[in-house]
Design brief:
DNA Primase, Chain A; Dna Topoisomerase Vi A Subunit, Chain: A, domain 2; alpha+beta; DNA primase DNAg catalytic core, N-terminal domain; globular; 20 strands; 622 residues
């Protein structure tokens, strides 16, 4: 059967080429592409590349080249229809039936895109006509320049019932297509006198600044219009049409794709002007849903471009509710290597007002402080405070456990549940946000106190362990780099450590190592080194892999047995944790002397038991 071209494009958009090929070929990231050994001929040096952005693979050795459809047909021996059916099912779509009706619908969709394109051009011309001066002045007042207006193809709909209709009818576009494209409204016949029924359809958008809505390929498929002056609704979107489904479309995605793939970031805001303001401030990776909550289709579209988009909703109650809904909606879809971060704007601000009033740096600061999904869920249920009683903690564990149980991926589900449980029963000493001596709550540097970062102030004393801790941090990181196979065993602990004493360069290296191995779980030692060197970490690697570090820890060297490396890593980490526990116990005892409480007494008992367990697991020093 013949499949509609638009349908095949949608299947490819919903399918990750690197994931499909990665099931057959061990791929590693190289710049903006992936590479591996060609599955179509024998080779020892990789010459097979995958370009996710352009949607094709190519082998420089044997010349094989094609799309995701070609790859499956050649590797699995399937016909084209069988391949389409498989990918369609994986993408959660349905194969259209090859019927005269479906062919007619496909032709109509093409026609409707022609209609919306013609309307867009007319709105653009109207903006620069005398009647569009009020709209152009409005855009100028909002700080938009000609380049921005042109990039987003902004326009103007005159305050007339028939201006657009008359113009496009003169271009011989049938009225029924204008109605089907959502550009005209045709009221029911019984609302119009008999002599006006044939001419009853009228312009949907009147007296509004027009924002064309484009699909991923950059084709205009719908519009949003902002009213000038008083009136409701303030923003009006096109209705659902055969080419526009608002729960699947993100405003600005076409403009954001190239920048997002280059930077590895994508920012989700709430509205048209937020996207445009962010673009003008240099954040070209910004997009927005269309007057609806973030949907599962939106999340899939974002994850197809980047692995951890940042949601940046307005700093008001409505924005907080939108973030909470997005967090819960994402849970069933989470899988290893993919997530969300949430940037919290100041109360009363949105991205548009923040960048216009306070500049790019203020916005960058908000993005830099974005929290991971697990932290947002934690704060939703706790407000940052761990309950005092065991009964309340058990209730909290059940609530947070319910979030974890919604995650379909077993690995991610297990990590969420374990992390929540640990934070609950370690009281205020674990995770993001510890209670300071002043009694307020704040975000820790990496979410956990360690001996390297703790400085206890009690009766004027000041205790630090910066020297030994730095070397141990270096050893832990060097061990993982030289033995990537340990990732599953050590990643969570290494990611929770505070690397401040080791310096920013080493912290950045740690984050790149964890991020890379999360995506490429099969990467070996040499492959990881190549990736780190290609991405500018040569100086940090030279400092880390010197004799001073590896001389202190034979198990960290590349030639050590993986079992010895894991045992050595565990001993080193456990010694750091024991020192941390010693300091936490000291702090808790001093506080309990100053002001006795049952909660603090319970915490002292818990910390001492934790130290005994660690001593039993690793009885000798490293």
């Amino acid at each position: 059967m013949a499949f509609p071209h638009q349908f095949l494009d949608e299947v490819k958009l919903r399918t990750s080429l690197s994931e499909v090929i990665g099931r057959r070929v061990q791929l590693r990231k190289k710049g903006r592409e992936w590479e591996g050994l060609c599955p179509f001929h024998k080779e020892k040096t990789p010459s097979f590349t995958v370009n996710e952005e352009k949607g094709f693979y190519h082998c420089f050795g044997c010349g094989e080249h094609g799309s995701v459809f070609d790859f499956i047909m050649k590797t699995d021996g399937l016909s084209f229809p069988e391949t389409v059916e498989r990918l369609t099912a994986d993408a959660g779509m349905q194969v259209p039936q090859d019927t005269p009706e479906e062919r007619q619908r496909s032709e109509k969709r093409k026609s409707l895109e022609d209609v919306t394109e013609a309307a867009c051009k007319w709105f653009e011309r109207s903006l620069h006509m005398p009647e569009g001066k009020v709209a152009l002045d409005y855009l100028r007042e909002r700080g938009l320049d000609d380049d921005t207006i042109g990039t987003f193809r902004l326009g103007f709909a005159p305050n007339s019932r028939n201006a657009l209709k008359g113009a496009l009818l003169r271009d011989e576009i049938p009225e029924n297509l204008l109605v089907d494209a959502g550009l005209l409204i045709r009221p029911p016949d019984d609302r119009m006198p008999d002599d006006r029924r044939d001419n009853s359809a009228y312009d949907r958008f009147r007296g509004r600044v027009m924002f064309p809505i484009m699909n991923r390929q950059g084709h205009v498929i719908a519009f949003g219009g902002r009213i000038l002056g008083d009136g409701e609704p303030k923003y009006l979107n096109s209705p659902e049409t055969p080419i526009f489904h608002k729960g699947q479309v993100l405003y600005g995605l076409g403009q954001a794709l190239a920048a997002a793939r280059k930077s590895g970031h994508m920012i989700v805001t709430e509205g048209y002007m937020d996207v445009i303001a962010m673009h003008m401030a240099g954040f070209h990776e910004a997009v927005a849903p269309l007057g609806t909550a973030l949907t599962e289709d939106h999340l899939r579209a974002l994850w197809k471009v980047v692995r951890e988009p940042v949601l940046c909703f307005d700093g008001d109650k409505a924005g907080q509710r939108a973030a909470a809904r997005a967090a819960e909606r994402a849970l069933p879809l989470l899988k290893s290597g993919y997530g969300l971060r949430f940037a919290e704007l100041p109360m009363g601000e949105d991205p548009d007002t923040l960048v216009r009033n306070k500049g790019r740096d203020a916005m960058q600061g908000v993005l830099d402080r974005a929290l991971p999904l697990s932290e947002v869920l934690w704060r939703m249920e706790t407000g940052g405070r761990v309950p005092r009683t065991p009964e309340a903690r058990a209730t909290l564990q059940n609530k947070l456990g319910e979030y974890a149980r919604r995650i379909d991926d077993p690995t991610v589900r297990t990590h969420f549940a374990a992390s929540f449980k640990e934070r609950i029963w370690q009281g205020s000493g674990g995770g993001y946000g510890g209670k300071s001596d002043r009694g307020d709550w704040k975000l820790g540097a990496k979410g956990r106190k360690t001996p390297a970062a703790i400085a206890i102030s009690s009766a004027g004393s000041h205790v630090t362990h910066l020297g030994p801790a730095r070397r141990r941090l270096e050893i832990l990181l060097a061990t993982l780099i030289n033995h990537p196979i340990l990732y599953d065993d050590v990643a969570e602990h290494l990611g929770a450590l505070d690397f401040t004493p080791a310096g920013e360069a080493l912290d950045n290296l740690r984050q790149e190592v964890l991020k890379t191995l999360a995506v490429e779980s099969g990467l070996d030692y040499q492959g990881l080194l190549d990736h780190l060197i290609e991405n500018g970490f040569t100086s940090a690697l030279n400092a880390l892999m010197g004799a001073d570090v590896l001389g202190d820890a034979v198990f960290a060297r590349p030639d050590a047995e993986p079992k010895d490396a894991l045992d050595g890593w565990g001993h080193t980490f456990s010694r750091m944790r024991e020192e941390e526990l010693d300091l936490e116990i000291l702090e808790a005892v001093e506080k309990n002397k100053a002001e006795y409480s049952e909660e603090m007494t319970e915490r002292i008992v818990f910390l001492r038991q934790e130290k005994l367990r660690l001593s039993a697991d690793y009885p000798t020093d490293t």
